[in-house]
Specification:
Blueprint lengths: L1 E5 L49 E5 L10 H16 L2 E5 L7 H11 L4 E5 L4 H10 L5 E4 L8 E6 L1 H15 L5 E2 L2 E2 L6 E6 L4 H17 L4 E6 L6 H13 L2 E7 L4 H11 L2 E6 L2 H4 L7 E7 L1 H13 L7 E5 L6 E5 L9 H15 L13
Parallel strand pairs: 2-3, 2-4, 4-5, 5-6, 6-14, 9-10, 9-11, 11-12, 12-13
Antiparallel strand pairs: 1-10, 7-8, 13-15
Helix pairs in contact: 1-9, 2-3, 4-5, 4-10, 6-7
Membrane topology: Lipid-anchor
InterPro entries: BMP_lipoprotein (IPR050957), Peripla_BP_I (IPR028082), PnrA-like (IPR003760), TAT_signal_bac_arc (IPR019546)
Protein name: BMP family protein
Length: 372
Amino acid sequence: MERRDFLKGAGIVGVTGLAGCTGGPTGDGNGGGGNDSNDSNDSNGSGGDGGEAAANIGMVYATGGLGDGSFNDQAQQGIQQAEEELGIEYAERQPDEESQFPTFQQELAQSGNYDLVCCIGFLQQSSLTDTAPQYAEQNFMIVDETVDADNVSSYVFREEQGSYLVGQMAGLLTTEEFSEGGGETVPDETTVGFVGGVEGELIGRFEAGFTAGAQAANEDVEVLTSYVGDFNDPSGGQEAALSMYDRGADIVYHAAGNTGTGVFGAAQEAGRYAIGVDRDQSVTQEDYADVILASMVKRVDTAVFDSVEAVVNDEFTGGETTALSLEEEGVAAVYGQELGDAIPGSIKDSVDETRQGIIDGEIEVPTDPDEL
């Protein structure tokens, strides 16, 4: 359902490159990785050399599951890196719906087999707030939210910063004639779009940054916004994006998990462009690489790996929140593998300047779309 459209003036701002059974792991080495969220998926790493694992880790993914080419897959990349480099073993859970979060969190904690339980996604905050005090000896980490508990390490990101960069790129490109790959712009329209998954403070930061960046690039750019209400509804994402393309949008940015796959399909159908999220989706969703201009990468893998490394090194610190921004390379913007080289150098230079301006504190990026 479309929530609102934005059309507000913004001054031109001096603008990196575009630069988620109670037994322990069974050691089958495949990392789970299936898409059946009801499987127990107690699988994984060999512990490096076949000996005792450096640590056993439980993973509870966000709804939408593995194979989204985005948030969950990025989290899995982090645990797989830890398996390879640190010699840990891990088990995975893929909830179908929010009501399963406490079940999986408590199952892994109650088993007593895991040195750390990783909770991927802001929707797990409420259930983990209840679960963590019940298992005071169990270490947890959460991505995208903060849980105030001595046994929880929280990781958050400055999504608005990376979103500002891709917003600026979109705001500049929509004013130019650009025809590469599977799409083209219509400069007379100067319209772009944002498709969100579930409306709330977190996805609002993506929206706020993108809108501010687009309008800082050109005050005449109109930003259409729609929330689908789900992170695993590609058809809903396609419908929302097609509506925007029909209304003149050249480029649509999504922060919607697997729902965003539908945005890419809509871009191909309409002969327009899209911007991915969380990972370089021109790589993870390569069938759509001809319409993916760029992606706002969010290093969920870094958060997972760092938290596991802290456990392995006996340095885990609960009750603290780590914020990852452009400066720490926790977020970044990357150009698409097929279209990136075709984006004008003048636009890339402007985005480079903006990135540094944000890091230096010269540009303040809004976090709330209602305050734009």
